[in-house]
Design brief:
eight-stranded parallel β-barrel, alpha/beta, binds 1,3-dihydroxyacetonephosphate, 230 residues
Length: 230
Amino acid sequence: MSKLVIANFKMNGSKDFIESWIKDFLAEQESANSIIVALPSPYLQTFSDRDLTLSGQNVSNEDSGAFTSQLSAGMLKDCGAKYCLIGHSEARHFLMETNEIIKQKFDQLKKESLQPILCIGEPLKIKEASKTTDYLTKQLDLIDSDQENLIIAYEPIWTIGTGLVPEIKEIQLAIDSIRCKFHKPIKVLYGGSVNSSNVIRISDKTDIDGLLIGGASLNPKEFAKIAQLC
Ligand code: 13P
């Protein structure tokens, strides 16, 4: 079945960089998987006419009003985004986002018919205390267990940008614990130090529905290879 392969550019790139990334990526890209690119928001509109599905990287939990620096779900939609990441560990950390705020963001996106990609994942301390499952379950507590079309990205915080990847059985255990919270079929992605050397192992040995890729996605050829091998 076709997988979702998402590039998260984070706060990287420039207009020229993205222009040449798209050219190189589309020239290499042969995968039947669904590709999504989470660009920094100023570039969404600029590249909305390209042959790519775009995602925002975050959204406000409010509709509109005096929230200087924030972007509403409606604005992201206007700029061409079809998806939006929420709850990324970097946003949780730097912007001090709580599970309550993230649930409000989820609702804002749903209201505008944008598809949320809800990121969850445990810090190293929790993994070392063998409390990952409880931690993930808690991050999902506010999401209705009957929710349709959920996409959850499991990104252990200690694997992001570190080159570390969990054991296959740890990934599968986390995925199972996420799936069993919900009554409807959901998509669960894995993210954290994925590259073209480890993608086959992660993708073939688990039942993940896709991947969320940070650093390795900035290289268009590497990202196309990951999408092909996934
Ligand atoms: P890396 O692939 O750089 O580890 O980042 C993962 C991530 O945070 C994607 O959202």
